[in-house]
Amino acid sequence: MIHTACPYCGVGCGVVARPDGAIAADIAHPANRGRLCSKGAALAQTLDDSGRLTQPQIGGKPASWDDALGLIAAKFRRTIERHGPDSVAFYVSGQCLTEDYYVANKLMKGFIGSGNIDTNSRLCMASSVAGHNRAFGEDIVPGVYEDWEEADLVVLVGSNAAWCHPVLHQRLLAAKAARGTKIVVLDPRRTATAEAADLHLPLTIGSDVALFNGLLAFLHAAGRVDRDWTARHTAGLGAAIAAAGPDDIEETAARCGLDPELVEIFFEMFARTERVMTVYSQGVNQSSVGTDKVNAIVNCHLATGRIGRPGMGPFSVTGQPNAMGGREVGGLANQLAAHMKFDDPADRDALTRFWQAPALTPKPGLKAVELFEAVAAGKIQALWIVATNPADSLPRADRVRSALSACPFVAVSDCWPTDTSVYADVVLPAAAWGEKDGTVTNSERRISRQRPFRPAPGEARPDWWMFAEVGRRMGWEAAFAWESPAAVFREHAALSGFENAGRRVFDIGALADGDDAAYDAMQPVRWPLPAGATQEGGRLFAEGGFPTPDGKARCVPTPFQGLPDRGGHGFLLNTGRVRDQWHTMTRTGLAPSLMAHTPEPLATLHPADAAALGIEPNALVRLSTDEGEVVLRADLRHTQRRGEVFAPMHWTDLFASTGPIGRAVSARVDPVSGQPETKATPVSLSPVATHFHGLLLRRSGLALNRDAFAFAPVSQSNPLLDRAIQTSADSASDHRALPDICHWVRVPVDTGQLFRLTGLRAMPTGDDLDRFARVLLDPPPAADWIEAADPARGMLRVAILVDGVLEACLFLARNPVGLPSEAAVVPILGTAIPDAGRARLLAGRGDAGTMSEGPRICACFAVSRDAIRHAAVTHRLRSVAEIGVRLRAGTNCGSCIPEIEEILRDVRMPAS
Ligand code: SF4
């Protein structure tokens, strides 16, 4: 049994890999104590090596490691010689382990001599880093996870923790049940987290600073400022209060688009509750005023002295599993390693001597958005991208793609082919979770080991090794001579304690002297942990001691700058996560059970807005911004504010014709943190005319030709692999003649691949229709082709059988009601169809019946919305526990409990 850590969110849950291949929760890990969410519970389903990158490639052709690494070293060296160190860059990831990050940062900042290493964590929590630095003097989360259970009031700001940090949310709900913790959610959307709250304030997008300024003014006017504590431990409170504006609840409510009564209730709750913590996440960080939002929140805690004591304090939860670890080693372009600072000569001198660095960079590098702008402008000529997919995930995705395609040299290391790796001159196969060996740090400063429990496929290798090999090949053999991640970690730990003496809170010097066995056996431990420490780090700053020159925290004035400009568009586009997907779906997209909750990307908007625009429920809607446009299916909900639309961040060219939402997201950034605004892009909405509907099921994959926006069947079984091996020859083949006629979404299912098709033009007829069907179905020579067609009604049903087994089927109809239910046909894909069953097949009736099941609510036990609704009505079930007894739903990971509660509320509502 191997103890390791989940690779997804910043909660950092412990998991155990059992010898039988099962992945289970680690009951001993302090972050989760035996819990897992739906994503963690499905980890075993993602351990499939098919489609993995297994060999280095140069120019799309297999190559040796020696050649690939040698080429990267040569290209970087030559580019630096010609254009200087700032003409090269690394773009890395919160998926990297701390050891990967450490080596990459040392290579770029200490030896190449540029600050141009940034990370996709820039998109996640750079505003929290900047806010912490401004307030505390260092990037520190003061609290611990136990605070979630010891607070009397927990305020969640811009955080759908029920979906994005589910295990922490479960810990909070357990505390609420046990001791009556009050929960307030500040979020424009009524999310699953808001459903479980005592109070939801649906503030308008971008008004958080106004709300917390109003709270600070209220606390001041109500005499709730802790005069003694603030005098001893803070500076600048008077200026912050002055910048917050008057104590005027009506005005605050108007700015935030809220009912003044709700605002007053929240302010009173905050003011009179000593044990209050404010949790914030991407709704705060991913903003062009994200750093001010962080400081406006922190100001309220500093003013009341509610920080660093049980159940109190501001608490930033990170999106990625090792965003914190990256911050510890200087993974962001504006940080040095070990929380050292660019503008501190003593830090720079210490780091130069510790590394024996020949060329410590004199200045910060380019942050993610400006880094890719520099690539587009030709200022960066060699780029190495590691474990991230900027062609999908960065704002202005099409512009990023153009930049990548114009860049003279791009290397990509990753586990799977992605929309980014297609632009790479060199592709390096990286070891994935379960194969990598190193450490990660979660949102409460707890370092956990990620341990390998399976061999890496083919020639895949860890990222730290690749960077070290390139460093050696660039001429710095001694500085990059580690032979194990344990050796890298020891150096990282030693640097944290080097000439520290309490100057920097981040200090894990106690871990610097352990041998390899100690590293292997390392238990989850929270920093600070300086040399000689006998117990792990705990809460910080209850008695001041901030790492600033005078030891005082800074209250930062955060004047409200107004709401986001709509730029002539009618709506604001807010992007974020769905419950069961992670990033650009390279891993979670492999698990059919995780696809079933939200099978396709939806644009969620208020029904009244939809009605005003003539957008029908489930119809296609076009989202047009100044950057680009995407087409999504409309999801109409009263939980969405008027004038705002939400779309998920996960889908890519591999899963949907419209590709990433990043295509439409603007690249406005926070001026302090450089974090892009992904929550408030001005957008216009319009209905999309559709002409027919289709359902395609295939056991094997289907490569998708982006150039022709058409379909190209190939023989490989994994669409990710298909995409990777797709060659220019595809674009010359017959399918290229197909018109751009369909919006499509690919949904991996247990039996193969399901494609939902929506016709954007008239359904083909005659020979065109036949050719269209043949291209989609790609029948092998010996296949039986059975068909039922009714041209007058615009209906076609075709199935391909090989040796009597259903290989693929296609259903086309002018109206969606003419399609069979997915629940009926998905299970029979890949099964033998007797002659007598062929008519039944073409009628779209499988063994599962024809009733639609709706989205799958419980991913662990495959329980659908309709099954829960049916059981609740039929058996008069009234509680989540009763549903659990009957259907098992909600009894494992618990991620679905808020949605089960919503269904039960819905069922209990009297019909109007
Ligand atoms: Fe993984 Fe879920 Fe835990 Fe996050 S909450 S670390 S996704 S199991």
Task: Write structural notes for this entry.
This protein has 6 domains: 1-47, Phosphorylase Kinase, domain 1; 48-124 and 322-526, Rossmann fold (3-Layer(aba) Sandwich), CATH 3.40.50.740; 132-316, 3-Layer(aba) Sandwich (Dimethylsulfoxide Reductase, domain 2), CATH 3.40.228.10; 567-688, Beta Barrel (Barwin-like endoglucanases), CATH 2.40.40.20; 692-852, no CATH class; 856-907, Orthogonal Bundle (Arc Repressor Mutant, subunit A), CATH 1.10.10. Strand 9 (182-186), helix 8 and strand 10 (199-201) form a beta-alpha-beta unit. The protein is α/β, with parallel strands linked by helices. Strands 5-4-16-15-14-6-7 form a 7-stranded mixed β-sheet, with helices on both faces. Strands 22-24-23-26-21-25 form a 6-stranded mixed β-sheet. The radius of gyration is 27 Å and the shape is globular. The protein contains 33 helices and 36 strands. Mean pLDDT is 91; it is low at 703-739 and 848-852. Iron/sulfur cluster (SF4) binds next to helix 1 and helix 7.
